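It is worth pausing here to work through a concrete case rather than discussing structure prediction in the abstract. The textbook approach is simple: state the sequence, then state the predicted structure, then interpret. We follow exactly that order.
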Amino acid sequence: MLHGAEDASSRAAPVPRGPDRILRHSSGLLEFSRALAGREGLRILDLGPTSSTNITRLTGLGHNTYSEDVLLAASDPALTLGRSKEGKVILDVEGFLRSNLTYQGPRFDGVLCWDLCDYLHEPLVRPAVERIGEAMRPGGALLAFFHTRDAGPDAPHYRYHILGEELLELQPGAHYRLQRVFHNRHIENLFSGFASLKFFLARDNVREVLAVR
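Step two, the predicted structure:
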């Protein structure tokens, strides 16, 4: 796997915008946008809650968009089988994969993973990333965000709305517990099946990653 150098100068400090939303510049989103530039009819998968802003933005660029709220699906109580002796939740991983992240037709050219991996239950993370990778075409781009320090289990979870090629609007979303903090080595292992990774360290304690399949 090839790894891009980490860019510590990312202009990603959030800017207040009203009582509940903030604007955020994203170097990772800019790289993702550049990966799609100059082409139309691409298949883009958004793994967050459905955003009409994102749909309008991406279809306006001539792309086909698909949405799946994976965190909502993963919070289904029916997936919980019990707890281990150590108190860890035992989940029906196969049951989750039978009902989610299943796609027909051509593979995706781009995937907006956002901060899914930070909030997804541990047993689901690697199987989900592997399934997403299988659904992407070679050379396809995936954008993911990771917390760089433990902000506590009540760290706010945001919905991401794309306003421009490098501009996001963050809207407080449903409450999900922050499960973990990934370090670079963990991220590299998680995306070991991808051809390359490029890291961007933002100023709001978020590490952005562009993974190319």
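Step three, interpretation. The domain at 2-212 is CATH 3.40.50 (Rossmann fold). The chain has seven helices and 13 strands.
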